[in-house]
Every structure is written in C-alpha cells, then in structure tokens.
Protein: Nucleoside triphosphate pyrophosphohydrolase
Organism: Nitrobacter hamburgensis
Amino acid sequence: MTPSRDISRLIEIMAQLRTPGTGCPWDLEQTFATIAPYTIEEAYEVADAIARHDLIDLCDELGDLLLQVVFHARMAEEQNAFSFGDVVEAITRKMIRRHPHVFADSSGYIAPSDVKGTWERIKAEEKAERAARKPIKEAPASSLLAGIKAGQPALTQAIALQRKASTVGFDWNDPRAVLDKIREEADEIEAALDRGDKPDIASETGDLMFALVNLARHVDADPEMALRGTNAKFERRFAYIEQALAARGCSLEDSSLAEMDALWNEAKQQERT
C-alpha cells in the first residue's frame, strides 16, 4: 500500500490495521477509552508546533491528530454507530448552519460582534435539539457548576470550577489560607502513604493538585503556564547534569543521586547569577 493525498487511503489503512487476524494486534485491542489520552496528547502537540512557529512540524502533527479522528470513526463503524463520512457530514452541516451570513442569502456588512452572537445563538439551538433527542430522564437538579465543560484540560476545568464557586462566596479571601489547605492535603497524602492505600493516595494527590491550582488562581498565575515554565526549567537543569557528567567522562547510569543532586544545585546557582 502506497501513501496518498486522498483521505480514503488513510481510512483504508485504518480498516486494515483493525481487521481481525491480519491487522495490528495493538490497534485491534484499542477502545475509545484507551485511545482518548492519545487524542488529547496529539491536540497538545499541534498547539506546541504552533507556539514554536514550526509549520513543517505542524503539518506532521495535524496528520497525527487526523489519524485520531479516523481511528475513533473506525471503531464506531465497527459498532454500526457512525462512520468517518458521518463525522464529515455532521461538521459540514454544522459549519453551514452556523454561518448563515456566508452560506445563506445575505447582503451588507456583518460586524464581527453580530457574527459571534449568531454563532452562540445557533449553538444554543443545537444544544437544545441534542437534549430533545436523548431519552427522557428525571430532570437533574440545577447546579451552579452545570455549565462547566467536562472535556477541557483538567487544570483549565479546575480554574473554571473554582471561579464559578467563588461567585457565591465559596472561596478563600487570602492566599495564605490556600497554603494552609495545601499543607492539610499534603498531610492527608502522608497518612494515605502510611496506610499503603493506593486509590486513596491517588485521590489525595488530586486534592493537592486542585489546591495548588487554587493558589495559582489567587496569586494571578496561570497554572498551565507556571507548570510549563517549571518543565522548561527542569529540562535545562537536567541537561546541565548530563553535560557536566559527560565532561567528567561519566554517565547518568554510573552516577549517584547525591552527585546528580549536587550538579542540580550548581545549575540553580548559575541561573541566579
């Protein structure tokens, strides 16, 4: 099978990878749930290529993201739920409907603010239509947090939840109070570690991360950008360790933690001078 610029070839490749008996064992054992983390990862890699202004890499990463769409569509087709063509039809219908000023008869200048208003109105109509198509269930209790999107990154969702709760006074007034909460959560992790309770350790770790996001919000720091900055700092300092060891004719594997930690502190000191 040869490469192609036609989307049908990619669909054929995925179908072949998912064919029992002759396909790829790894691809065959995947499900929507196991592939979802890769879908999120590929979206982030697209954003990273854009941030780096690397259009060659962007082309490659967009292909990886497109593969995720094809993968999910193939699994859905195997369950007779929908196909890739249905995905394309759904988004084209949506785009045509949400842009009546482009695809319907219209004349005159349309202000960007009017376009945004139309877009939001149509989105609301679509949401109501989707709700009407679902089986009738007992109406859920109204919640202040009901409008928070579940599919967004966890850090972003945490901020949105905290901001919404703060509108009714469910919030701290002093960042130091958040620090007290962070210490409390750290103590609870330690207690869970003492018990050897892995599920509880994971749960308490999530609580600590939520509290840290709250602190970032209170000090006007974007937690995503703060963590990215720390990631970059870690890479710089670890590279310093590798280079310093290499200059001594040593490797990471042959070095002790104490040696690496001393070089880490050297890297920190150099950054301060």
Summary: The two ends are 57 Å apart (CA to CA).
